[in-house]
Amino acid sequence: MTVNIAANRETMGFQTEVKQLLQLMIHSLYSNREIFLRELVSNASDACDKLRFEALHNDTLFENDADLHIRVSYDKEARTLTISDNGIGMNRDEVISNLGTIAKSGTREFFSRLSGDQQKDANLIGQFGVGFYSSFIVADKVVVTTRRAGEKADQGVRWESDGGGEFSIEMLESTPRGTAITLHLRADQDDLLSGHKIRSIIHKYSDHIVQPIMMKKEEWKEGGQVITDEDETVNQASALWARSKNEISEDEYKAFYKHVGHDYEDPLAWTHARVEGHQEYTQLLYIPAHAPFDMYDRNVRHGIKLYVRRVFIMDDAEQLLPTYLRFVRGIVDSSDLPLNVSREILQESKDIEAIRAGCTKKILGLLEDLAANDKEKYAKFWEEFGLVLKEGTAEDYANKEKIAALLRFASTHADTNESTVSLPDYAARMKDGQDKIYYITAETFNAAKNSPHLEVFRKKGIEVLLLSDRVDEWVVSSLTEFAGKQLVSVAKGGLDLGKLEDEAEKQEQEKLASNHKDLIGKIKNSLAERVKDVRVTHRLTDSPACLVADEHDMGGNLARMLKAAGQKAPATKPILEINPNHPVVMRLKEEEKHFDDWAAVLFDQALLAEGGQLDDPAGFVKRVNQLMLEMRAG
Ligand code: ADP
Predict the structure, then answer these.
(1) Is 543 in the pocket of ligand 1 (CB under 6 A)?
(2) Are 310 and 295 in contact (CB under 8 A)?
(3) Which pLDDT belongs to residue 4?
(4) Which residues of the chain have pLDDT under 70?
(5) What is the Å distance from ligand 1's center to 99 Cα?
(6) Is residue 218 one of the residues assigned to a domain?
(7) 3-class DSSP assignment, residue 419
(8) Nearest atom in ligand 1 to 87's CA
(9) Which atom of ligand 1 approaches the CA of 89 most closely?
(10) What is the pTM of this model?
(11) Are residues 217 and 171 part of one domain?
(12) How many angstroms does the Cα of residue 302 sit away from the middle of ligand 1?
């Protein structure tokens, strides 16, 4: 909706989400109000980076002023604070979309997760990113004037809003290049009108910003502090990553992360190194403390920032890390790549491959270090990013064994839904005579934990990994062994327990099988349409029957997942294994009249127990009812 006020001034409504975000921000982040300055300075710095990059191809954009900087000033009388830059600026359309809407992916999810609890919501907003709109935490009116580099002087734009539902926009004459944001402070924000206060906030949050942040020098004169005409730089104004590690404090690393990661919380861990040799580059890579809203959005570019000899080249250079490490934030600064490198070039470059391999190694090393030395942090990492890291077993052949050792699973060892067991843990606990790693996949943790397939393993005290994430099926299809030990599904094939079964048990098995030849034959006949084979089990102790997939057939869980996803699964039939010691099976042996019904129920309940869906649920119900009536009669 647009309302014309004057020839050149229009009022427009904010996107609904922006209104909601503004409301929330002002209330939830009030106790953290100083961050507005970090956000505005961060945007100003990005704007300078963008101009420097665009000017690589067209240096007229500099308009003879290549000395990029940020300026912070205040006016006690007008009660305003102004943050300005001579970076890329914005044209009218950009102002309307950047400062009137939220274009971020994950927006819907963000709003759906808000709870109304101020503390929780404050954290969520932090994770989502606060950005420009955080100005309204301290200001009740914000005025932006801006002109995009390369546009004529009369193409300036003025944006103004009180943070309610609307903003106004008008074209300006003779506007300098870049952006100036003037905050009209709220009544209780006068403490921000102090050079000392502003400098201390800049030191705290923005010291690492590469461009100089300029302020007017102040002097003590009789009567108090006076602002002079002389400029001074109030931040370090050097690339943090180019400094040597021992000169950088933890706080500086954290502050820099918030700028590059567009994050509000501290990172979980980081690694900073200068690599020399064939390719020379510096990497400063961070693992965030929480997953971003859009981690599973395939349309979003994920990645780190690429610099070439300190010049910003691009955001989200996804070629610098494999997809399964897409949660990593940070920068790579190459000494060798050409300044005009493009995404297309990155895709094919051998040099980039070397950098990617180096960054991958660093991150996996950092994770190994956390896993070994800071279990609590690693558990936190796993909770946030475990599912993504799992993709690596299929994606990164060269590092498969390393990634495998970093995975964490639930298992029958603890029987809880927490993924804390690693493959090396498992291997170290293997029983005498055990040479395989056993797992079960199911749709939910409970289905896995209570599966009949585990009965013999529980009886013998053999640990089984309980896999119930969708991605686990892909993990086990690419990760078929670890440290020389085969990974084996307990629901597949003949289940050769090898040395875990003694001679007496094996003989007992054979005896049972030959004693039940007739029964097996009858069931096979009865269920011929639905089973590939029927045999006596040695997996079960308490249940009457279970289904297993033949050695080279697709497992039931994966087949069901594919079907649910609308994909074709090969039409294979399962093998029905029966437990001849079970009273139900013993009873079946004597049955004549209803044999087919009983056999069908045996099959259907085995299918239900592994989380499958019945072809004919009504038929199943009918048969069970019939059985119950017979029970009364008998
Ligand atoms: P974010 O920085 O996370 O994208 P913001 O709400 O802070 O979100 O800013 C939205 C957009 O507005 C930015 O992506 C940028 O395109 C534009 N913008 C903000 N500040 C400036 C500035 N000082 N100069 C140029 N563009 C800016």
Answers:
(1) no
(2) no
(3) 43
(4) 1-7, 298, 631-634
(5) 8
(6) yes
(7) coil
(8) 24
(9) 25
(10) 0.83
(11) yes
(12) 18
262 Cβ closer than 6 Å to some ligand 1 atom: yes
Burial class (CB in 10 A: 0-12, 13-18, 19+), 363: buried
Report CA torsion sign: 453, 459, 464, 467. positive
Q: Is 145 in the pocket of ligand 1 (CB under 6 A)?
A: no
CA of 71 to the centre of ligand 1 (A): 16
Same domain, 229 and 344: no
Q: How far is CA 471 from CA 108, 349, 360, 490, 606, in A?
A: 24, 31, 21, 18, 24
Task: Check if 87 has its Cβ closer than 6 Å to any atom of ligand 1.
Answer: yes
Is the beta carbon of 149 within 6 A of some atom in ligand 1?
no
Q: Are 315 and 210 members of one domain?
A: no
Q: How far is the CA of 367 from the centre of ligand 1 (A)?
A: 33
Residue nearest atom 11 in ligand 1 by C-alpha distance: 98
pLDDT for the residue numbered 123: 78
**In DSSP terms, which residues pair with 281 in a beta bridge?**
275, 334
Any atom of ligand 1 within 6 Å of the Cβ of 70: no
Residue 434 included in any domain: no
For residue 255, what is the DSSP state? H
pLDDT, residue 381, reads 98
Beta strands in 31-93 (DSSP E): 70-75, 80-85
For the chain, what is the domain count? 3
82 lines ligand 1 (CB under 6 A): no
Question: Could you give the C-alpha distances from 30 to 22, 83, 118, 142, 564, in angstroms and in order?
Answer: 12, 20, 11, 17, 46
- What's the gap in Å between 133 CA and the centre of ligand 1? 10
Look at ligand 1, atom 1, and give the residue with the nearest C-alpha.
131
Cβ(85) – ligand 1 distance below 6 Å: yes
In this structure, which residue's CA is closest to atom 15 in ligand 1? 98
> What pLDDT, in 10s, does the model give residues 556-585?
888 888 888 888 877 889 999 999 999 999
Point out the domain boundary residue: 334, 354, 378.
378
Distance of CA 468 to the CA centre of its chain: 18
**Percentages (nearest 5) of helix, strand, coil residues in the chain:** 45, 20, 35
> 582: domain range?
515-550+565-633
The Cα–Cα gap between 134 and 202 comes to 16
For ligand 1, whether the C-beta of 90 sits within 6 Å is yes
Q: Which two tokens stand for residue 622?
A: 């009918």
CA gap 213, 232 in Å, rounded: 8
Residue 398, Cβ density class (10 Å: 0-12 exposed, 13-18 middle, ≥19 buried): exposed
- Answer whether 10's CB lies under 8 Å from 168's CB: yes
